[in-house]
TrEMBL record:
The keyword Glycoprotein does not apply. The keyword Transport does not apply. The lineage of its organism: Bacteria, Pseudomonadati, Pseudomonadota, Alphaproteobacteria, Sphingomonadales. Residues 23-243 form the 2-oxoacid dehydrogenase acyltransferase catalytic domain. It comes from Sphingobium tyrosinilyticum. InterPro entries: 2-oxoacid_DH_actylTfrase, 2-oxoacid_DH_E2_comp, CAT-like_dom_sf. Its cofactor is (R)-lipoate. Pfam families: 2-oxoacid_dh. It comes from the Bacteria. This is 2-oxo acid dehydrogenase subunit E2. Keywords: Acyltransferase, Transferase.
Length: 247
């Protein structure tokens, strides 16, 4: 088939040693696999990334209280995000779908399984937490903790990483104000999180009301999802987080 890709210039090949000392090493096995999947997804899917923020001031205060009251356990922001995502998927079912390779057929899913990108020494792994709509935030938190530890220590089977509705990728513990996460095909969207930001908002008395905002970066497959729905979906996630309670 004659496609535009056939007309790309060949990959530049250099003898890098001509420019200075270098060392040459192969990518690890997981990095090689991830690279081929990410390369395919980036080239094959027309990505658009929509950015928004969720007001998590009350959620963060609630989370800190919960952690203080439960010293043996630890709640992070990720479980409430997964819960809010599950609710948004129920409200916008097209986001819980896959486009088949023929480019003409949509598979709509009646389950809500959410992948969580985990940074491991071997590379990026994405375990899937099943039936997030039926589990509490505490149950989801415990599963994320267990599966991310397994990913980092023992690795994961393909089965543990397959069958997601959508993926969440959090860089918030490191930093950033927004990024373009690459969709984890055959899913049609992925939610990226970056670092909490304090923001001055107008207060009711005319003064300044400081709020804690979580940046949300939603990449979506524009063949399946239009921009207006992406904006509504992200707003729904933000609303779910603003209303979340550990009670
Ligand atoms: N802003 C500020 N702080 C945040 C935050 C955010 N958006 N999200 C999490 N944090 C905080 C947590 O609350 C925790 O702080 P405390 O210890 O004070 O409570 C700290 O950062 C560490 O959190 P964590 O990483 O242990 O837990 P998590 O549930 O937030 O994330 C996991 C778990 C597995 C998703 C994460 O460790 C990870 O691997 N992230 C990397 C994903 C990645 O690489 N994505 C890129 C994909 S594209 O290449």
């Amino acid at each position: 088939m004659n496609t535009l890709l056939n007309h790309l210039a060949p990959w530049p090949e250099y003898d890098f040693a001509e420019f200075g000392p270098v060392t040459i090493e192969p990518l690890g096995r997981i990095q090689q696999l991830t690279a081929s999947f990410l390369g395919r997804n980036w080239v094959a899917i027309p990505h658009v990334t929509h950015h928004d923020e969720a007001d998590v001031t009350d959620l963060e205060a609630d989370r800190k209280r919960w952690n203080a009251a439960n010293p043996g356990a630890k709640a992070t922001l990720l479980a409430p995000v997964v819960k809010a995502l599950a609710e948004a998927l129920a409200a916008f079912p097209l986001f819980n779908s896959s486009l088949l390779a023929d480019g003409k057929t949509i598979v709509r899913k009646s389950y809500t399984h959410i992948g969580v990108a985990v940074d491991t020494p071997q590379g990026l792994l994405v375990p899937v937490v099943r039936d997030c709509d039926m589990k509490s935030a505490a149950e989801i938190q415990a599963e994320i903790q267990a599966i991310s530890t397994k990913a980092r220590t023992k690795g994961l089977s393909m089965t543990e990483m397959a069958g997601g509705s959508m993926t969440v990728s959090s860089l918030g513990h490191i930093g950033g104000t927004g990024f373009t996460p690459i969709i984890n095909a055959p899913e049609v969207a992925i939610l990226g999180l970056t670092k909490l930001q304090p923001r001055p908002m107008p207060g009711a008395d005319g003064g300044i009301n400081w709020r804690l905002m979580l940046p949300l970066s939603l990449s979506y497959d524009h063949r399946v999802i239009n921009g207006a729905d992406a904006a509504r979906f992200t707003q729904k996630v933000a609303d779910g987080l603003a209303e979340f309670s550990y009670e």
